[in-house]
Amino acid sequence: MTLALQIILVLSSILLTVFVLLHKGKGGGLSSLFGGGVQSNLSGSTVVEKNLDRYTVLTALIWIVCIIALNLIQVFTF
């Protein structure tokens, strides 16, 4: 079970990183430093952004649950 949770944790970490990097910059900060401040009509619709937000939150919840479960398994096995 620990191995399965570790695999899920690694996969969710990679997915979470990808989903966060896919978000459109809101202006200012590091996103505008690397060219994210340029407005484009090809950036996508609001439906895509809402779905990306949902996927990001779901992946973050899976990541958090895996971390808590792995910590609980570690506490109760020692």
Automatic annotation (TrEMBL):
The chain crosses the membrane at residues 55-76. Keywords: Cell membrane, Membrane, Protein transport, Translocation, Transmembrane, Transmembrane helix, Transport. It comes from the Bacteria. It is a multi-pass membrane protein. GO terms for molecular function: protein-transporting ATPase activity. The keyword Chaperone does not apply. InterPro entries: SecG. It is found in: Cell membrane. GO terms for biological process: intracellular protein transmembrane transport; protein secretion; protein transport by the Sec complex. One of its GO terms (cellular component) is plasma membrane. Belongs to the SecG family. PANTHER family: PROTEIN-EXPORT MEMBRANE PROTEIN SECG. NCBIfam families: secG (TIGR00810). Involved in protein export. Participates in an early event of protein translocation. This is Protein-export membrane protein SecG. It comes from Corynebacterium occultum.
